[in-house]
Amino acid sequence: MAKILLMDDDAEFSAGFIDFLERAGNEVDWTRSASEATDRAHEEEYDLVISDLYVFQGGLPVAEGGILLIHRLRSSDMLYSRQRRLRDIPILVISGAQHAPGQGHILDMAESVGADRGLAKPFTDREILIAIETLLAEPRPGLRTE
Question: Which among 15, 36, 78, 126 counts the fewest CB atoms within 10 Å?
């Protein structure tokens, strides 16, 4: 189906999520931070990026989360191939933070800075598969037909 880059600092969640995505026919690479994900995205060509919004160290959120990753990918001029730029890869943001007091707007904010879609954790298998399928089917601005 797709080559996916997953950025999430929760190893337990990521292991189960990767297993699910791979059973659905996808190839998945996993990173724990925006820096790792940015490096990977410069080394490999991905069809989709799925990113958690918050990365925690010592129980506190740090800047290495999804907003930084979105910014880095969307501001990149790197050509992946003759047909695609890094900045044009679809980005799906996932987060459980919208359930915290004062954080109900967090997925909307991620979309306003460049994410293509946001899904609240916990999400169903059907919801994530529909989101992935929809994002992969949408025409991307960086694709050229020659």
Answer: 126
| CA dihedral angle for residue 74, residue 75, residue 79, residue 85, rounded to 10 degrees | 30
What span, in angstroms and rounded, lies between the C-alpha atoms of 96 and 25?
A: 25
- The Cα 113–Cα 67 span in angstroms is 8
Q: Decide which of 4 and 140 is more confident.
A: 4
Confidence of residue 111 (pLDDT cuts 50, 70, 90): confident
The rounded distance, in Å, linking the Cα atoms of 78 and 75 is 9
Burial of 123 from C-beta contacts in 10 A (0-12 / 13-18 / 19+): middle
Q: What is the pLDDT of residues 39-71, one digit of tens each?
A: 999 999 999 999 998 887 777 677 678 899 999
